[in-house]
Write a structure and sequence with these properties.
- By secondary structure, this protein is an alpha/beta fold.
- Helix content is 45%, strand content 13%.
- It contains 16 helices and 12 strands.
- The strands form 3 sheets. It has a 7-stranded mixed beta sheet, sandwiched between helices.
- It is globular.
- It binds pyridoxal-5'-phosphate (PLP).
- The site of pyridoxal-5'-phosphate has 13 residues, from helix 5.
Length: 405
């Protein structure tokens, strides 16, 4: 049967292939250590859950809510930006609450894109960064994911060679899947470029609070003048371990936010009010739960890097995010990331996300999520050691990729 125009632009998730194998292995009784998904495993702090259960008792909260978020929630987000980044925002015109940042991002793409518009996106990237715009009818032009001079060379070339000229550039630091981080100096240059060429910046700051060094990740909006061209997305999913609650935000440029709010007003009535009230309590509440969560991810990162390293797989320590971006061990690299991930699942009972699922330039890597506890990570390292010890034998039995094609 012929595919629909929209679904033809959405190839089946590469991750589905690994997920299917994972489910089959589990059905056979295998104890798979799942580091494949970016799904936080830590519980939401109790004071936030309590607020939800308290508020839900009031029948007035059972009605339709406000599409762009209740006032208190938008004020709480503005207060967070002021406290954390020193950025002042008008909660009425410069803040929109979204049903998770992914929804906000996708609907921003719908709101601002005309068919054939060119959008610049890192490769590899979190899938919605490209597919949100592809669904909206845009053409994507890749830029490097690593913040540095190459990004600016790519931006310059894009402005000269794209027809029509790009409308927007996507930035995501700390990055999923690469865990790259950017500093304010880099952001200053991005903002200067975007303002000069009249290009919007969409900044995804979902990992604003998951960092392991002394310097917290900055906001693009800290750059003077950034608000003229920038919308930035944050999320409670990772900060407060609330991924299933679906609460995120878009903040920044009024024209961009008005467009997003307009589209959303046709699509949704906002999150369930008790969820919005609990999210407000999260943002206005104590910060020790954030610190605790950060420390948990940091300990896991240290265990992962140390124990996998001793098992024979050297993985650069991520400075932020809940992922390690791991170069495929030399011996296995020519298999590509999907075949390597399948092998790792089958022989070592470890699930990871193949880098190719995030874009063609990710194929020499896999993404490892810090979403199992330290004991399980050590267990994964033991499995890995055995896997690597028998690498030659395993590779001997794998049909060479070139022959399989
Ligand atoms: C970079 C990035 N942006 C956005 C999201 C989605 O977050 P939310 O739960 O707020 O939709 C994720 C989730 O993994 C992410 O990694």
């Amino acid at each position: 049967m012929e595919e629909f125009h929209k679904t033809r632009r959405l190839p089946p998730y590469v991750f589905e292939q690994v997920n299917k194998l994972k489910a089959a292995a589990r059905a056979q009784g295998a104890d798979i250590i799942d580091l494949g998904m970016g799904n936080p495993d830590l519980p939401t702090p109790p004071h936030i859950v309590e607020k939800l259960t308290e508020v839900v008792q009031d029948p007035r909260t059972h009605r339709y809510s406000a599409s762009k978020g209740i006032t208190g929630l938008r004020k709480a987000q503005a207060a967070y930006y002021e406290r954390r980044f020193g950025v002042k925002l008008n909660p009425n015109t410069q803040v929109v609450a979204t049903l998770g940042s992914k929804e906000g991002f996708a609907n921003m793409a719908q709101a601002i894109t005309a068919p054939g518009d060119v959008v610049l996106s890192p490769n590899p990237s979190y899938p919605i960064h490209t597919f949100g715009f592809l669904m909206a009818g845009a053409a994507i032009r890749a830029i490097p994911a690593e913040p540095g001079p190459e990004v600016f060379h790519a931006l310059e070339r894009a402005v000269i060679h794209s027809v029509p000229k790009p409308i927007a550039v996507i930035m995501c630091y700390p990055a999923n899947p690469t865990a790259y981080v950017a500093d304010l100096e880099f952001y200053k240059d991005v903002v200067a470029f975007a303002r000069k060429h009249d290009i919007f910046i969409l900044s995804d700051l979902a990992y604003s609070e998951i960092y392991f060094g002394d310097t917290p990740p900055p906001s693009m909006l800290q750059v003077p003048g950034a608000i003229e061209v920038t919308a930035e997305f944050t999320s409670l999913s990772k900060t407060f371990s609330m991924p299933g609650w679906r609460v995120g935000f878009a903040v920044g440029n009024e024209r961009l936010l008005a467009a997003l709010a307009r589209v959303k007003s046709y699509l949704d009535y906002g999150a369930f009010t008790p969820i919005q009230v609990a999210a407000t309590a999260a943002l206005n509440g104590p910060e020790d739960c954030i610190v605790e969560m950060r420390n948990t991810y940091k300990r896991r990162r240290d265990v992962l890097v140390e124990s996998f390293g001793r098992a024979g797989w050297n993985i650069p320590a991520p400075e932020a995010s809940m992922f390690a971006w791991a170069p495929i061990p030399e011996k296995f690299r020519s298999l590509g990331s999907l075949e390597f991930s399948k092998l790792l699942l089958e022989k070592a009972e470890i699930a990871v996300a193949p880098g190719i699922g995030f874009g063609e330039y990710g194929d020499e890597y896999v993404r490892i999520g810090l979403v199992e506890n330290e004991k399980r990570l050590r267990q994964a390292a033991r499995n890995l050691r055995r896997f690597l010890e028998t690498a030659d034998e395993t590779l001997h039995n794998v049909v060479p990729v070139s022959a399989a094609r």
